[in-house]
Design brief:
This protein is an alpha+beta fold. The protein has helices spanning 7-27, 32-49, and strands at 67-68, 76-83, 89-92, 101-113, 116-125, 132-136, 150-154, 163-164, 167-171, 205-206. It is 18% helix and 26% strand. The longest helix has 21 residues, at 7-27.
């Protein structure tokens, strides 16, 4: 497939391919580790070749793929969405320049990791075209993973594992870093303090071993 030289058309194609990648993941019925390997391989190919990839263009020729934790079936979770219709809007900081990003908490999800109760706010993005957004930090943030947190859901870009009625799929094996981790020219929303978990989420994307302190 030929990708347009127009930056706008290329970005539209990037978002389309990301959405297709996640649609394929949601439809994949193979065992968890096989699904993860297939998804990560396809995602790495996209990041290493697409003109709208966050990987800097000078680094793409030698790009060998992103770094990931080993797949952990215990971190493939389901949680009932608990609406919070009266929550006030808030702004979250960016990793770089630009005004804070307006979001609103639409509810919560509660779950347990390693016997520890956890709860995350579920946000709605007021920028782009809207969408459910679940960023988080955890005990790996700042050493094994980016200090500003990772993303679990971003449905504005089609990056989500889906839902069944009021139950959201929270598979941390697909948690991923914001684009600013790959290139600081991107200014990405950071996880607000209410979504800082004290437990270690050792699943999903991580920093390369050479990049950890």
């Amino acid at each position: 497939m030929t990708i347009s030289s127009s930056s706008h058309l290329a970005l539209a194609d990037w978002r389309r391919q990301v959405a297709q990648l996640y649609a394929g993941l949601r439809a994949d019925t193979r065992p968890g580790p096989m699904r993860a390997v297939a998804f990560r391989s396809a995602r790495d190919r996209l990041f290493g070749s697409h003109p709208s990839s966050a990987v800097p263009i000078d680094d793409r020729r030698d790009f060998l793929g992103l770094a990931y934790f080993r797949h952990d079936p215990a971190l493939n979770l389901r949680a009932t969405f608990e609406p919070d219709p009266d929550a006030p809007p808030l702004d979250v900081p960016r990793s770089g320049e630009g005004p804070q990003i307006p979001i609103v908490r639409i509810g919560w999800v509660s779950f347990t990791v390693a016997g520890q109760p956890c709860r995350l706010s579920v946000f709605w993005l007021n920028e782009y075209s809207g969408g459910i957004f679940i960023p988080f930090r955890d005990a790996t943030s700042g050493h094994a993973t980016y200090g500003g947190g990772r993303y679990l859901w971003d449905s504005a870009k089609g990056a989500d594992l889906g839902s069944d009625g009021d139950e959201l799929v929270l598979d941390f094996n697909y948690a991923y870093h914001p684009s600013c981790v790959l290139d600081p020219i991107w200014s990405c929303p950071l996880a607000p303090r209410e979504n800082w978990l004290t437990v270690a989420i050792e699943a999903g994307e991580r920093l390369p071993a050479s990049a950890t302190p």
